[in-house]
Specification:
Layout lengths: L7 E7 L6 H10 L1 E6 L2 H13 L7 E5 L9 H4 L2 E3 L7 E6 L5 E4 L7 E2 L2 E2 L2 E2 L3 H4 L1 H9 L2 E8 L6 E2 L4 E5 L1 H9 L3 H12 L3 E5 L5 E2 L7 E5 L2 E6 L7 H10 L13 E6 L2 E2 L3 E2 L6 E3 L2 E6 L4 H12 L4 E6 L10 H7 L15 E4 L4 E6 L4 E2 L6 E8 L11 E6 L6 E4 L1 E2 L5 E5 L8 E9 L5 E4 L8 E5 L1
Parallel strand pairs: 1-2, 2-3, 5-10, 12-13, 16-17, 21-22, 25-33
Antiparallel strand pairs: 1-23, 4-5, 6-7, 6-14, 8-9, 11-12, 15-16, 18-19, 20-21, 24-26, 26-30, 27-28, 27-31, 29-30, 31-32, 31-33
C-alpha cells in the first residue's frame, strides 16, 4: 500500500468544488488534475470555469460518476493504491456505507452520524461505488476490500505499516467486521503487517488521524501540538508519550517525532495544519486566517527541505463557482478543524513509479560499523532498472560538489547497498541516492534531492 509521498500522476478532486479555486489552479499547474463530474453538463460547467482561471485543460482528466452527499470527501471514500507482488497497481476500494460516523474519546463509545433522516442513517452507496468509475476511466483494476478503510483515517508508510485512530475499528465492528478480521484482511490484501491503532483525540468528532499527525517519510511522524492551556493538550501529549513513542519503524528504530504548533481559531477549534497534502515535491497547506498560519508555513519548510510549500485560505465569499449546497454545508467555515485540504483531495499514484525506500544511516556513525546504508528499489514499470543509475551522491558538509558511488545489489531481491566513505571524527556527511528505470522514470531519496538530503556525523 503506497505512502502519500510516493510518486503520483496528480490529484483527484470533485466538481462542484468544495476547495478554493486557487488551489485547483495550482494542482493543475503542478501535476495532472483528475476531476470527478456527475454528467456532461457538470463537465461543461467545470470547463467554463477552468478556462476563466487559465487552467490548461490538456492537464485535466474528467471522470464521470454519480455523486452523493459525501462526494467532496474524495480522501475518505476514494481508493488507496496497492502494488501486488505480481502485476500492476490496483485501486483498493474500502467500504464507505454510513455518512458519517462521529464519536467521543473512548474507543468503545457509541457511534453517532452526521447525516440522519429522523432515526435513519443516510447511507453513501453512491460514493462507495464511485471507485469503479475511476478504475474504468484510468484502466486500473479494483481490489474490493471487505472492510471500512476511510482515507482520512488511514496512513501508510509504504513498507507494511498503517496508522489509524480507534474509531476505525469501531466503524468496522458496527459494519460487522471484528478486529481480528480487520487486521487479517489488511495483512492479506494490503500487505499491512503492523497496524498501529491510536486513541481517539477529539472530545467529539470524526477522529480522523490526518488532523492529529502526518507521516513525513519512513521514519518521521509530525504531530500537532495544541496551546498548553487547551483542553486537548494533555490528550495529544499522552498519545505522543505513551503510544507513538513506543512504535518502531520498518527498520526497527524509534520514530523521530517532530511537532508543529497549532492554534485556536473560531472559538476553541484547532487549526488542522497536518491536514495538508504532500504530492510529489509540493506541500499544499490549509490556512485559517490567523497569525499562526505564518508559523505553520515556516515549520513546514523547516521540516521538508526542498519541497515547495503553498498555503491556501478558503473564504467562501471569495469563491466564484460555489454551489448553494456547498455554501449551506460549510456556511462561513471554509476549512474545518476536522475537514480541511487533505480531506477533499486525493492522489492518483503512478502505476509505473520507480519506488525507493532508504534505511538511512544513524545521526552519528562509526567507520566500519554502521556506515553502510541499504535501499529498496523497485521498478513498477517492468522495463528494468538502469544499473549505472543507482548512485549515492555524497559530500562533506560545507562543500558544494557532490561525489558519486555506485550502489551494489545485495543477495536480497530489490535491495541495494553502499558505504558512506569513512571520515575523521566530527566530520559530517550529506548524501542522497538516485535511480532511474529504462521507462524513463527517475527518483531520488529524499524526493527533493539535491535540495533535500540526509546528514550523518562520524564519531
Amino acid at each position: 500500500m503506497a505512502a502519500e509521498w510516493e510518486p503520483a500522476l496528480g490529484t483527484l478532486i470533485a466538481w462542484p468544488l468544495s476547495i478554493p479555486y486557487k488551489l485547483v489552479v495550482e494542482l493543475a499547474a503542478d501535476n495532472s488534475l483528475f476531476t470527478l463530474v456527475e454528467n456532461e453538463s457538470s463537465k461543461m460547467e467545470a470547463l467554463k470555469w477552468f478556462g476563466k482561471w487559465g487552467i490548461d485543460t490538456d492537464r485535466v482528466t474528467f471522470i464521470t460518476a454519480p455523486q452523493g452527499i459525501d462526494v467532496s470527501w474524495v480522501r475518505d471514500w476514494g481508493p488507496h493504491a496497492v502494488f501486488p507482488p505480481q502485476g500492476k497497481m490496483k485501486l483498493a476500494d474500502g467500504k464507505y456505507i454510513f455518512s458519517t460516523p462521529v464519536t467521543t474519546k473512548s474507543c468503545t463509545d457509541p457511534l453517532m452520524f452526521l447525516y440522519m433522516d429522523g432515526d435513519k442513517i443516510l447511507k453513501t452507496e453512491t460514493e462507495d461505488n464511485a471507485t469503479a468509475y475511476i478504475g474504468n476511466a484510468l484502466n486500473l483494476k479494483i481490489l474490493d476490500l471487505p472492510f471500512i478503510s476511510t482515507g482520512g483515517n488511514v496512513m501508510s508508510d509504504g513498507l507494511g505499516s498503517a496508522y489509524s485512530s480507534c474509531i476505525l475499528n469501531n466503524e468496522n465492528r458496527y459494519y460487522g467486521v471484528t478486529d481480528d478480521m480487520f487486521f487479517k484482511e489488511n495483512k492479506m490484501l494490503l500487505g499491512i503487517n503492523k497496524y498501529h491503532i491510536l486513541s481517539n483525540f477529539e472530545k467529539t468528532g470524526i477522529q480522523h488521524i490526518d488532523c492529529l499527525m502526518k507521516l513525513l517519510d519512513e521514519e518521521r511522524i509530525l504531530v500537532m501540538q495544541p496551546p498548553s492551556d487547551h483542553e486537548l493538550f494533555p490528550v495529544y501529549e499522552d498519545i505522543v508519550k505513551n503510544e507513538l513513542s513506543q512504535f518502531k519503524t520498518y527498520y526497527g528504530r524509534p520514530y523521530e517525532i517532530v511537532r508543529m504548533n497549532t492554534f485556536r481559531y473560531r472559538n476553541d477549534d484547532l487549526a488542522a495544519y497536518s491536514n495538508s497534502l504532500i504530492l510529489n515535491k509540493t506541500i499544499y497547506v490549509p490556512l485559517f486566517g490567523i497569525p499562526g498560519d505564518v508559523t505553520a508555513m515556516r515549520r513546514w519548510k523547516e521540516l521538508m527541505p526542498g519541497y515547495t510549500v503553498k498555503g491556501f485560505e478558503y473564504i467562501l465569499n471569495n469563491e466564484p463557482s460555489l454551489t448553494q449546497q456547498i455554501k449551506d454545508r460549510y456556511q462561513s467555515m471554509g476549512w474545518n478543524h476536522g475537514d480541511a485540504l487533505h480531506c477533499r483531495t486525493r492522489a492518483i499514484w503512478d502505476p509505473d513509479m520507480l519506488f525507493i525506500a532508504l534505511k538511512a544511516a544513524n545521526k552519528s556513525i562509526k567507520c566500519g560499523e554502521d556506515n553502510q546504508i541499504y535501499a529498496t528499489i523497485i521498478d513498477y514499470s517492468g522495463k528494468g532498472l538502469k544499473n549505472d543509475s543507482l548512485i549515492m551522491y555524497w559530500r562533506i558538509e560545507g562543500n558544494t560538489i557532490w561525489n558519486e558511488i555506485r550502489m551494489k545489489h545485495t543477495d536480497i531481491k530489490q535491495q541495494y547497498e553502499v558505504q558512506i566513505p569513512c571520515q575523521n571524527q566530527g566530520i559530517s556527511i550529506e548524501y542522497y541516492i538516485s535511480g532511474a528505470s529504462e521507462s524513463g522514470k527517475k527518483a531520488t531519496r529524499p524526493a527533493t534531492a539535491p535540495l533535500g538530503y540526509y546528514r550523518t556525523t562520524f564519531k
